[in-house]
Write a structure and sequence with these properties.
The complex is a heterodimer of chains A (241) and B (605). With 241 residues, chain A is an alpha+beta fold. Chain A is 25% helix and 15% strand. By secondary structure, chain B is an alpha/beta fold. Classes of the chains: A alpha+beta (241), B alpha/beta (605). Chain A: Its cofactor is [4Fe-4S] cluster.
């Protein structure tokens, strides 16, 4: 049996050890995701990449590809689930796209457009989350955090600093930084850290460069994330290769 | 002073980072709370990032990173406590102490709050006073408690009878009537040898008693066959399902059977180390169990060269800190390693990659005690009890509207009606058969049988008579899951919070059929999309109650059509307070305003 599986009826090759997400991405197929990033270990928490494999729900980023698997991805059932997940993330935090510096470059916003989310649907939680502007080069706006832990992984696994962690439980989960004062300025975080550029939403923002690229000319303003994500991955592989 | 305390605690735990939960608990016991500088000192002492320490400290309900008073009173808030009047008692205590629930007194003396089920449903209402269990609360006890707190009498000097916990065993069968001496089962297991023992477990068809019913022989064999530097046995005593208290009784009065079972599991899988993960609510058992373990070591029934037969196995007790999710085996292992109790990505499963990445078998307290019984009596004997697919007996924790709440040991296959009859239930409206996480049966289903193939249960049987409002049971469960979701995955973290809000909206008579449809939608999302069993089961009881007891919801619907949750007149109350006005002109005279406000969900991001 050849090393391939079916993604919405199309054959996708894989190398042993690859997850469904990795194999699909390498083949230029888009499976929606927020917490997955090709450079980091899978986390499996956002659940946006929920697919159906052999009739059972599974996250594409944590499930190993296997020969002959039949994977459903773009069905209306799964898109509706993803739309609801996105709506839950929008009402859980404080997301005001028109005034957000990340608008147009935001993975959450772009994925919501991709999934046809037209309103947040649920009542907003309006959590009270203070902004941390203590660091000279970087601003933390916790209002937009979606608990994907990409910054946690980047700081721990690439920067070797452990600047970020999640604390709290359930709906009280929140991002913390590695200092007694709770201020980013009192950690060893630097604007050159990998963690400074990995946030898919608008939590970790560089100071003094806001709106340098006008809204309307940004990544996902030009192309939908389903195209852009695949192109970005291909570009990064060219660089690496 | 604080620094010295922390240093000695760290030394006692050999400065091992995976003992962080125990270190935090002991630090809090010594210093009253977990201050920012204490977390820094612990991080430095363990040589781990401070954020990692704060992450764990912030996860567990029983750890506090702000001072919560010299007296911390936590009322058990299971639906059975509510049915016994805990809310009035809590209000009374708060009034007597001039407090609001959840707030610390101005003088820093005391705080009063609610906590998830403390496992005392057969003798509630119950509370934890500085994490010590007090049962059978009455208005008189609450009155005296307020006096004791105001006079600053130490909790240890409160009336000893308040702390008394009864076993309340109402029906005994093969396990509760075992008649074996400590170590007898272990000796029988050693005689059989690992292979012979595993054969008996296989013949017995023993299935896990936590609720999922996984075959014990398969679990033990997979663990035994897995390669590793060490193998571990974990006894899951994080009995957190609302309405369950059977493990409390096994640990209190059948502890030698449990320890024998753990040693037997260790012998079967080739382990020399075991852990008991004891839920934080059972703190009162800790010293007693430690003493019993020490006695067994002296008697040659634990530790080196057990029974002089060359088998070495020792046990350590790890105390939890208030987190239902730690009953999930991979979350339990995370907690045991000093981390927040968030379930791991599986596979790999604990039997191959468990505690410290080594092969680990996690078994329920009752499963281990039954394994000890099987080691003596044999698999065929056990298999003859119960039903073909659910062999042996099951301990049921029965509480709620029954004359005789307590522990009932029945062979599998017993009908719900027989259990109700034995417990003296009359005029029963509903029975939940798996706590907050399983189905809720209506009267026409009481002929069904307790068995994995019909009504599976971890042992929580809560009984509701005709006088009860099943909507309140559903609302209690919705809040329970919102409080206990670990927060790792989106559907469970936000979905449980949405459900709790919808139920509160209905409770305020502001709901509409739309809200009921929303809960149905949340059920379909969380089933399948959630990361672990908690999220996958969090809506089952809610949905069952909604389906079978619909009138309890319907009478709360403000109108059969769409109705906004926003109340403009109520929103003006703050302005009225600020301006000191309460005249007619400061109120909206008709209800039109409520319709003009529009639905909040119409707002764009």
């Amino acid at each position: 049996m050849t090393n391939s599986f079916l993604l919405d009826g199309e054959e996708v090759p894989f190398t042993p050890g690859q997850t469904v997400m990795q194999a699909a991405s390498a083949a230029g197929k888009y499976i929606p995701h927020l917490c997955w990033h090709p450079d980091f270990a899978a986390h499996g928490s956002c659940k946006l990449c929920t697919v159906k494999i052999g009739g059972r729900f599974a996250t594409a980023c944590t499930t190993r590809a296997a020969a002959g698997q039949e994977v459903e991805n773009g069905t209306e059932e799964l898109i509706a689930k993803r739309r609801t997940l996105l709506q839950l993330l929008f009402v859980e935090g404080n997301h005001f796209c028109p005034s957000c510096e990340k608008s147009g470059n935001c993975v959450l916003q772009a994925t919501a457009y991709e999934m046809g989310m037209l309103s947040p649907h649920f009542d907003h939680f309006y959590p009270d989350r203070a902004v941390d502007a203590s660091h000279p080069d970087v601003l933390l706006d916790f209002n937009r955090c979606i608990m994907c832990e990409l910054c946690v992984r980047a700081s721990r696994d690439v920067d070797g600093k452990n600047v970020f962690a999640l604390s709290g439980r359930g709906a009280k989960s929140h991002l913390i930084v590695n200092s007694e004062s709770g201020r980013l300025a009192d950690t060893d975080f630097a604007a050159t850290d990998r963690a400074a550029e990995v946030c898919p939403v608008g939590v970790i923002l560089r100071k003094r460069v806001g709106f340098a690229v006008p809204i309307g000319q940004r990544d996902y303003d030009a192309k939908p994330i389903s195209q852009k994500a695949v192109e970005k991955l291909a570009d990064s592989e060219k660089e690496a290769g | 002073m604080a620094a010295m305390n922390i240093e000695s605690i760290l030394d006692r735990h050999s400065r091992e980072a995976h003992r962080l939960v125990q270190i935090l608990r002991e630090t809090q016991d010594a210093l009253g709370w977990l201050a920012p500088e204490s977390l820094t000192a612990i991080a430095e002492g363990l040589d781990i990032p401070r954020a990692q320490v704060e992450s764990t400290a912030g996860f567990y309900s029983f750890f506090h990173t702000r001072p919560l008073g010299d007296y911390r009173i936590l009322f058990s808030d299971n639906i059975t406590d509510r049915m016994l009047g805990n809310q009035d008692l809590m209000r009374t205590l708060c009034e007597k102490l001039w407090l609001e629930p959840g707030r610390v007194a101005e003088d820093g003396l005391v705080s009063v709050d609610a906590t998830s089920c403390t496992g005392m449903c057969d003798q509630g209402p119950a509370l934890l006073a500085n994490y010590r269990t007090i049962t059978r609360l009455t208005p008189a006890r609450i009155d005296e408690m307020a006096h004791l707190i105001r006079r600053r009498v130490q909790v240890g000097d409160w009336p000893p009878e308040w702390f008394h916990v009864e076993d309340n065993i109402r029906r005994r069968d093969v396990l509760l009537d075992h008649g074996l001496a400590p170590g007898e089962a272990l000796a029988a297991a050693l005689d059989r040898g690992p292979t012979g023992l595993l054969g008996e477990i296989e013949r017995s068809a023993l299935r896990g008693r936590g609720g999922a019913g996984f075959g014990s022989d398969i679990k033990w064999r997979s663990c035994r066959d897995a390669w590793g530097d060490a193998h571990y046995v974990i006894c899951n005593a994080d009995e957190g399902e609302p309405g369950t208290f059977k493990d409390r009784v096994l640990l209190s009065s059948y502890f030698d059977m449990v320890v024998d079972g753990m040693c037997i599991a260790g012998f079967a899988i080739g382990a020399s180390k075991g852990f008991i993960y004891l839920r934080g609510e059972y703190r009162y058992l800790l010293d007693r169990l430690e003493t019993r373990l020490a006695q067994r070591r002296e008697a040659g029934l634990l530790g080196r060269n057990i029974l002089g037969r060359g088998f070495t196995f020792d046990i350590e007790i790890h105390l939890g800190a208030g987190a239902y999710i730690c009953g999930e085996e991979s979350a339990l292992i995370e907690s045991l390693e000093g981390k927040p109790g968030k379930p791991r990505i599986r596979p790999p499963f604990p039997v191959t990659h468990g505690y410290l990445g080594q092969p680990t078998t996690v078994n329920n307290v009752e499963t281990l005690a039954l394994a000890a019984l099987i080691a003596v009596k044999g698999g065929e004997w056990f298999r003859a009890i119960g039903t073909p697919a659910s062999t042996g007996t099951k301990l049921l924790s029965v509480s709620g509207d029954v004359a005789r709440p307590g522990i009932y040991e029945f062979p599998f296959g017993v009908t719900v009606a027989e259990v109700l009859e034995a417990a003296g239930a009359t005029d029963t409206q509903a029975v939940t058969t798996a706590g907050a996480a399983g189905s809720c049966l209506a009267a026409n289903e009481f002929g069904r049988r307790i068995a994995f193939e019909d009504v599976p249960t971890g042992g929580s049987i809560m009984v509701f008579d005709q006088s009860r409002d099943m909507f309140e049971a559903a609302r209690n469960f919705a809040h329970f899951f919102a409080h206990e979701s670990c927060g790792f995955c989106t559907p469970c973290r936000v979905g449980t919070a949405v459900n709790a809000r919808l139920m509160d909206k209905l409770a305020l008579d502001r709901g509409s059929p739309y809200d009921l449809d929303e809960m149905e939608k949340m059920h379909h999302l969380m089933q399948g999309a959630s990361h672990c069993g908690l999220g996958n089961t969090a809506t089952i009881a809610l949905r069952d109650i909604l389906a079978k007891f619909r009138p309890a919801f319907d009478r709360r619907l403000h109108s059969p059509d769409y109705e906004p949750g926003f109340d403009l007149d109520a929103a003006l109350s703050q302005a009225r307070r600020m301006t000191g006005r309460d005249d007619a002109g400061a109120h909206l005279t008709d209800n039109l305003s409520a319709h003009a406000g529009g639905h909040p969900s119409e707002a764009k991001p």
